[in-house]
Amino acid sequence: MFHVRKITLKNFRCYSDFSVEFSPDINIIIGNNAVGKTSLVEAIYCLGLGKSHKTSADADLVKIGENYAFVKAEFTDGDKKDEIVLSFVNGKKKLQHNQKTVGRLSEYVGFMNTVIFSSEDLNLIKGTPADRREFMDSSISQNNKDYLVALIRYRRFLKERNEMLRQTENGKALDEILFDSITEKLNIEATIIINERKRFLDTLNERLNRLNNEISEDKENGKIVYLPNREAGKLAEAFKERRMLDLTLRTTTVGPHRDDFIALINGKDASSFASQGQQRTISLAIKLALAEMCKECNPRLIVILDDVFSELDALRQNQILKLLDQKNQIFITTTSIDNLSESVINNSKVLNISKEEENER
Ligand SMILES: Nc1ncnc2c1ncn2[C@@H]1O[C@H](COP(=O)(O)OP(=O)(O)O)[C@@H](O)[C@H]1O
Ligand SMILES: [Mg+2]
Fold first, then answer.
1. Which ligand 1 atom sits closest to the C-alpha of 32?
2. Would the CB of 54 count as within 6 Å of ligand 1?
């Protein structure tokens, strides 16, 4: 079964020098607050998408005061072994797969999928549209190279278009031909992004209602509704209509960089109508649905439960552990083992983490 067997961290977050071997099944990582539990699972997550789920600034991952960091891991899948090294040296990021440098991230993604459950999942309901776009982008990119490529290109063209708009502030005349050509390229990538987001949320919805039903005592209907800023076919027209406004505001006011989605419980907007418990349930169901989808696309799935598992009741704990029946490696971080069921503990490798200076690791 696919799993990460061993990981080594050098100057990653709070770690100077750290190495640990994992179980292919459940790993429980125990430690007090701020000892580095989240940082350890963040390192694992980074090996999937080449970036953190917590920050977009790679510099945050390098231990304060150091100028380089790396995460090195050994993955096993039957007889097959893979070594992945993600390094940050003087602000430059490099990913190596079996000693070979990965040129484009799009060539690498799909190596494995990682689904991480954390307290920040509530942001799927209560957070900003940017939180929800990040969820769609990272989830779709894991299994869809075309999407990742379109996203990277879209961001580049959007930046170029906004730069042109900004330059008019200093009285610079707009190069209309160049501007229209960038807008056209933007529209091509936007169309891919909008269509794929729609497809992704449709597939997610097929599972979401069942899962939300299973884990909500009140048997609630849960659903996500995509709110594209503009439908794919209507965007070219919208760019034309908004041209004057974009020039006045000096930014691109339409496009999928302004997309959002809302979660509905029994037909009502979960962010304003649902209780905290219902919001937790639906955000958990969204992640469970994602894990199911990932598993179908790619059997190499690692599941991370960062400080959420012990807060769940037995029903929800078991729901999540069903993921293990499908043979996935699972990481559970917690400050205390007390709330974990005995059966979970008995089937797990327990790793105690303490502050580096105390431990001299
Ligand atoms: N780049 C960094 N350099 C040094 N320390 C860091 C860096 N990033 C985070 N930390 C610190 O690492 C510690 C561990 O954080 P975290 O992994 O979130 O702990 P836990 O999940 O165990 O509560 C925190 O005290 C945090 O401030
Ligand atoms: Mg933590």
1. 22
2. no
What distance in angstroms lies between residue 36's CA and the mean position of ligand 2's atoms? 7
Does residue 314 share a domain with residue 231? Answer: no
Give the C-alpha separation, 164 to 166, whole Å: 5
Q: Which of 255, 46, 258 is nearest to 132 (CA)?
A: 258
Q: 117 in a domain, yes or no?
A: no
Taking only the tens place, the pLDDT of each residue in 89-137 is 999 999 999 999 999 999 999 999 999 999 999 999 999 999 999 999 9
Ligand nearest to the CA of 39: 1
327 in any annotated domain: yes
Q: Which of 269, 297, 325 is the last residue of a domain?
A: 297
For ligand 1, is residue 222 a contact (CB within 6 Å)? no
Residue 277 and residue 128 share a domain: yes
Would the CB of 197 count as within 6 Å of ligand 1? Answer: no
The residue to mutate among 10, 12, 13, 358, having the most atoms of ligand 1 within 8 angstroms of its beta carbon, is 13
User: Tell me: the pLDDT tens digits for 60-91?
Assistant: 999 999 999 999 999 999 999 999 999 999 99
DSSP 16-84: SEEEEE--SSEEEEE--TTSSHHHHHHHHHHHHHSS-SS-S-GGGGBPTT-SEEEEEEEEEETTEEEEE
Q: Can you tell me which atom of ligand 1 is nearest the CA of 35?
A: 22
Rg over CA atoms, the chain: 22
Task: State the Cα–Cα distance between residues 279 and 134, nearest whole angstrom.
Answer: 19
d(CA 84, CA 75): 8
Write out the residues surrounding ion ligand 2, Cβ under 5 A.
37-38
